């Protein structure tokens, strides 16, 4: 009894505080294929799966991926069952088939053996019961599977069958009411709602082991949303959602949130994702609601008050703040009202006594702490912009209006001698509208205006502009715990002041940091920065590192309306844009409410993993693992980066690049998780994705190989083959060219050799001819000299004889006869000389122009025989021609004819009553012609003379007058045809002339 009372009190206490939330609604208008959400589950990879009556949906926190058109008789799916931790989740399809969710994708498969949709036992039919889903038919039986056994549920009986022993336990209870089972399971324990005893009965292995009194379960208006595969039980009662859990022997119920203006009878499925603090609620007609439970609390003014637009706030106590309206709020609600009237919302400050300093029109109003801020002190004609104090003095920043050509605000920095506004010590005039000031050190103050940031010396009153010529609207100046000064601006971001130099901090991806209001620093070193569009969180160390190297990556974490705000626009422009409470909470003023939060308890959510295994190739989806194979015909390829992430998508930092390319750089992947590629050349490419997974700036990487098949002419083997062919063609072309050039060269060499040989032969012939001509000329000279000498004598004799005849008148017949006889002989000798000389000249001239011809030596001898036959007959001499009739020779016919003529002529002259025999022989390449007579013969002196003359005809003196011209001419002619004559005196009588002739064609 005590246990039940304690549980009831715990339930009542849980109703005191309800978790704040935001709702996102999805239906057929924005992602779902159908509005009836039957069941919801999360797989081991982090994806949310939803069953509908028109397919299965995978949700990654940003996009819905719909799967339908399975090869089943119906696309209507109901509950999930199986083992998510084993990557084995099933959902019902046909009775004989199911859809298996495995490795992040669904496929048709056979149902699990122990989880058939329908089974029969003892002629009774049972349907699988693993969630609150009901067929809504009468007389329906169900069964529930556990690891160690199975429960069979009938209207009037609950039977347990042990899996090992097959033993049965029957409980006489009525588990079915209005065709719906009144049972659910947590941690392999069955719970039965007993309306009669108004208790929840605990059943373990077919036996009742406990009971719990729980009014919520017994309430007829309560609806239970249960999922065995999720091991979660929720209670819906009067639009309030409760979470039921069994821990340490207790059935615990905690209130999650309350929904307004929703009919709870439409809820049929639910799933609570504790890691993201999100509640998924499925409706039978209204689709899916995603309820995000917030770490932030937004408090608005009471309904009796005007709009909840807050600016300057001050901490009031350790858990509340006071506004410029005099209203006090804590994280739960409005507390009380001090009723400040007509106070400017932009300036509030505490003085040294805890009094609240505010601005009322052009006067300063100081509310007194001593009277609990009911009384106030008015200071006339003070337009206060900011205020602070130290141990001894007040410091105030005032605004004054100067009217020259145009009205213009100026500033006055006033330092008071004590902690009052009565005794000014120094006034320093600022030539711009003042906005914020802060003490820099003992001797300097930083003053921010609508145009510049000034560093003011309290000793010399020197004012130095730290910005320069550019104008910057200063909104706030914050000093962090480490002593750094941070300058907040309007529209130009925020800066770090270092060594009197402003270092601009990088923007977030949406450039919302450009209008930042203040910085609240938590104990872990994070800055919380409210802006006109969201709240940002960033590590100060990352900002300092960026200021140091201007290259480090700075990642801002963004909180938006989905985190629990009424608006994304926080308010700035006041002297205090956020407060830090003693209990550790931060409070920020916004355009619609005060936002309370504990920075150490606010969760930041980062994805744990990403999956790159889908691509749309020309709008046709394709799955892959580590390698993506493409064709060059593909015009566009979209690679999907699937990331299960259920928080603000602005905090999903994914960048990708194609490495190995000259222009490769990290590109931001959009919220659709799609990276598009086009006109990528063939080959192997590497697609690299990185994703931020922590506040510390840690990234995880994923690498995919993109393999694009080349055309056959782009393959390596083709290039090698083509290169080889080109080399071979080039080789054969070079060989052909070389052979051609060699051939041409050989032909040219042959021509050159031929011409050289011809030229050499010609030169040689010319040399020979030259030599011969020289010899002939010399011989001719000798011959002419000899002839001249020999002719002179007969001519002189004839002349002397004629003179003698003329000088003497005495002519007797004898003397006259003698004289005439002498003249005759001399004239005849001279005549013969002349004839011989003429023949020699004719033969020489004809020799130079005659062409060599082939003729018969025998016929040549015959011609000469006929010529001398008459003379030979007168001398009773016989000429015998024994030359071989078949012998043909190339020797110059004119020269040989002249030689033979002279020799036969000599033989005929000196032979009487004898014979002249002519015969031929061939000795190797020479022809021997022998002319032998039986005449008087030549004496030895003549033979010796002619022999000596033949051997040295160039140098020997010619004895023409003594021996006549005949044989001299023969020797000269033989020299011309490279012949030779041998004179031999016959033993008996006569002389033999042996001619040795070269039988060759004269070219």
TrEMBL record:
It catalyses: ATP + protein L-histidine = ADP + protein N-phospho-L-histidine. Keywords: Kinase, Membrane, Phosphoprotein, Transferase, Transmembrane, Transmembrane helix. Residues 786-1001 form the Histidine kinase domain. InterPro entries: HATPase_C_sf (IPR036890), HATPase_dom (IPR003594), His_kinase_dom (IPR005467), HisK_dim/P_dom (IPR003661), HisK_dim/P_sf (IPR036097), Ig-like_fold (IPR013783), Reg_prop (IPR011110), WD40/YVTN_repeat-like_dom_sf (IPR015943). Pfam families: HATPase_c, Reg_prop. GO terms for molecular function: phosphorelay sensor kinase activity. The keyword Iron does not apply. It comes from the Bacteria. Its EC number is 2.7.13.3. SMART domains: HATPase_c (SM00387). The chain crosses the membrane at residues 711-734. This is histidine kinase. It comes from Chryseobacterium limigenitum. The lineage of its organism: Bacteria, Pseudomonadati, Bacteroidota, Flavobacteriia, Flavobacteriales.
């Amino acid at each position: 009894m005590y246990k039940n009372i304690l549980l009831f009190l715990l339930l009542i206490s849980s109703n005191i505080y309800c978790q704040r939330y935001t709702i996102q609604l999805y239906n057929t208008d924005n992602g779902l294929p159908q509005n009836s959400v039957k069941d919801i589950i999360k797989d081991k990879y982090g994806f949310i799966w939803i069953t509908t009556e028109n397919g299965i949906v995978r949700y990654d926190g940003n996009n819905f991926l719909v799967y339908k058109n399975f090869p089943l008789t119906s696309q209507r799916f109901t509950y999930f069952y199986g083992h998510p931790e084993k990557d084995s989740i099933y959902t019902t399809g046909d009775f004989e088939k199911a859809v298996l969710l495995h490795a992040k994708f669904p496929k048709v498969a056979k149902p699990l053996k122990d989880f058939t949709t329908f089974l029969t036992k003892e002629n009774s039919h049972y349907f699988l019961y693993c969630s609150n889903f009901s067929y809504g038919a009468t007389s329906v039986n169900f069964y529930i599977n556990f690891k160690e056994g199975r429960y069979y549920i009938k209207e009037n009986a609950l039977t347990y069958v042990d899996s090992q022993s097959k033993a049965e336990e029957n409980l006489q209870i009525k588990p079915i009411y209005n065709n719906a089972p009144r049972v659910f399971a947590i941690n392999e324990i069955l719970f039965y709602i007993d309306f009669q005893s108004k208790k929840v009965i605990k059943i373990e292995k077919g036996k009742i082991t406990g009971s719990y009194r729980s009014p919520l379960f017994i309430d007829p208006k309560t609806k239970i949303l249960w999922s065995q595969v999720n091991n979660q039980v929720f209670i819906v009662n009067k639009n309030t959602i409760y979470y039921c859990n069994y821990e340490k022997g207790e059935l615990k119920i905690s209130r999650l949130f309350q929904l307004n203006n929703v009919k709870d009878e439409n809820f049929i499925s639910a799933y609570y994702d504790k890691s993201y603090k999100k509640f998924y609620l499925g409706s039978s007609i209204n689709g899916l609601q995603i309820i995000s439970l917030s770490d932030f609390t937004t408090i608005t003014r009471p309904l009796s008050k005007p709009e909840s637009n807050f600016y300057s706030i001050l901490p009031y106590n350790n858990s509340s703040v006071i506004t410029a309206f005099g209203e006090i709020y804590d994280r739960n609600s409005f507390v009380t009202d001090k009723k400040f009237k007509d106070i400017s919302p932009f300036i509030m400050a505490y003085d040294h006594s805890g009094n609240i300093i505010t601005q009322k029109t052009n006067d300063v109003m100081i509310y007194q702490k001593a009277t609990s801020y009911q009384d106030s002190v008015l200071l006339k004609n003070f337009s206060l912009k900011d205020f602070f104090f130290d141990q001894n003095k007040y410091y105030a920043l005032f605004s004054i209006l100067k009217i020259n050509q145009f009205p213009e605000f100026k500033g006055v920095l006033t330092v008071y001698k004590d902690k009052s506004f009565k005794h000014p010590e120094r006034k320093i005039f600022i030539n711009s509208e003042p906005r914020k000031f802060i003490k820099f050190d003992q001797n300097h103050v930083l003053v921010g205006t609508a145009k510049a940031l000034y560093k003011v010396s309290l000793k010399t009153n020197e004012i130095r502009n730290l910005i320069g010529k550019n104008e910057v609207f200063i909104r706030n100046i914050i000093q962090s715990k480490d002593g750094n000064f941070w300058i907040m601006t309007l529209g130009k971001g925020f800066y770090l002041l270092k060594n009197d130099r402003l270092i601009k901090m990088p923007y977030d991806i949406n450039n919302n940091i450009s209008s930042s209001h203040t910085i609240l620093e938590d104990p872990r070193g994070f800055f919380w920065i409210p802006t006109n569009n969201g709240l940002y969180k960033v590590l100060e160390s990352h900002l300092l590192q960026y200021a140091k190297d201007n290259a480090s990556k700075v990642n801002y974490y963004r909180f938006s309306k989905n985190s629990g705000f009424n608006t994304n626009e926080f308010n700035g422009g006041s002297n205090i844009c956020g407060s830090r409470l003693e209990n550790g909470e931060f409070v920020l003023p916004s355009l619609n409410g005060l936002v309370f939060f504990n920075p150490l308890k606010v969760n930041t959510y980062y994805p744990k993993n990403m999956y790159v295994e889908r691509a749309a190739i020309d709008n046709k989806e394709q799955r892959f693992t580590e390698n993506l194979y493409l064709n060059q015909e593909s015009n566009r390829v979209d690679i999907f980066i699937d990331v299960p992430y259920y928080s603000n998508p602005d905090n999903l930092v994914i960048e990708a690049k194609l490495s190995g390319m000259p222009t490769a750089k990290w590109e931001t992947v959009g919220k659709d998780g799609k990276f598009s590629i086009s006109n990528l050349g063939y080959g192997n490419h590497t697609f690299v994705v990185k994703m931020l997974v922590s506040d510390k700036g840690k990234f995880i990487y994923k690498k995919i190989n993109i393999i694009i098949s080349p055309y056959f002419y782009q393959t390596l083997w083709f290039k090698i083959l083509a290169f080889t062919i080109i080399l071979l063609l080039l080789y054969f072309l070079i060989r052909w060219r070389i052979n051609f050039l060699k051939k041409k060269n050989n032909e040219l060499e042959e021509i050159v050799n031929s011409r050289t040989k011809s030229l050499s032969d010609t030169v040689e012939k010319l040399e020979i001819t030259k030599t011969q001509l020289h010899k002939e000329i010399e011989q001719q000279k000798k011959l002419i000299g000899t002839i001249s000498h020999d002719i002179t004598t007969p001519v002189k004799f004839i002349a002397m004889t004629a003179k003698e005849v003329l000088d003497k008148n005495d002519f007797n017949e004898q003397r006259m006869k003698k004289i005439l006889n002498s003249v005759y002989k001399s004239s005849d000798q001279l005549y013969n000389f002349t004839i011989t000389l003429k023949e020699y000249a004719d033969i020489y001239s004809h020799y130079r122009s005659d062409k060599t011809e082939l003729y018969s030596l025998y016929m040549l001898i015959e011609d000469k025989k006929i010529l001398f036959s008459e003379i030979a007959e007168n001398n009773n001499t016989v000429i015998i021609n024994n030359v071989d009739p078949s012998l043909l020779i190339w020797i110059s016919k004119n020269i040989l004819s002249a030689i033979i003529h002279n020799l036969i002529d000599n033989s005929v002259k000196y032979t009487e009553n004898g014979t002249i025999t002519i015969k031929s022989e061939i000795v190797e390449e020479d022809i021997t012609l022998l002319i032998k007579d039986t005449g008087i013969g030549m004496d030895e002196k003549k033979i010796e003379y002619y022999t000596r003359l033949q051997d040295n005809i160039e140098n020997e003196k010619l004895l023409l007058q003594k021996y006549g011209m005949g044989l001299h001419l023969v020797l000269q002619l033989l020299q011309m045809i490279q012949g030779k004559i041998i004179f031999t005196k016959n033993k008996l009588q006569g002389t033999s002339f042996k001619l040795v002739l070269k039988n060759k064609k004269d070219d």
